[in-house]
Amino acid sequence: MSHTVFWLIAGIVLCLMELFLPTAFIEFMMGLSALVVAGVSLIVPYFGLQVVLWMIVSLLLVLLTRRFLPKRKVYEIEGSTEAQTLTEILPGQTGRVLYEGNSWSARCAEMDIAIAPNQRVYVMRREGNILVVMPQNLLSS
Description:
It is a multi-pass membrane protein. The protein is of the alpha+beta class and 141 residues long. The chain starts with a helix and ends with a helix. The protein has helices at residues 2-20, 26-40, 47-66, 136-140; strands spanning 81-85, 94-99, 102-108, 120-127, 130-135.
């Protein structure tokens, strides 16, 4: 019976932790799994087997709920928009550009091209916090 109380307390604590420390329902699924194992512990008295069952049920619930959560948003830039380099962008490295009034990290779409400071560039796409740009003179020629 003490194992049942342990799993009930663990399940309730994990579910409540999700309210205060959100983890995209990971803690909540682990808490639900603990509550399921609390019920199973009335039938299966072996604590080691209960822990293995809790881990398996937790993993399955987390994987199943991932299918229903919204996907991460992919940031696309509609068409090519203009920006201006603030620093030099060396080949294969990042520099800074002024885009829509803010300073952004940027790298050139072509890895073997350097872009000088104060040069107009076109923003091709966004990869995380880095803009991928092309020099205006390459695209207009």
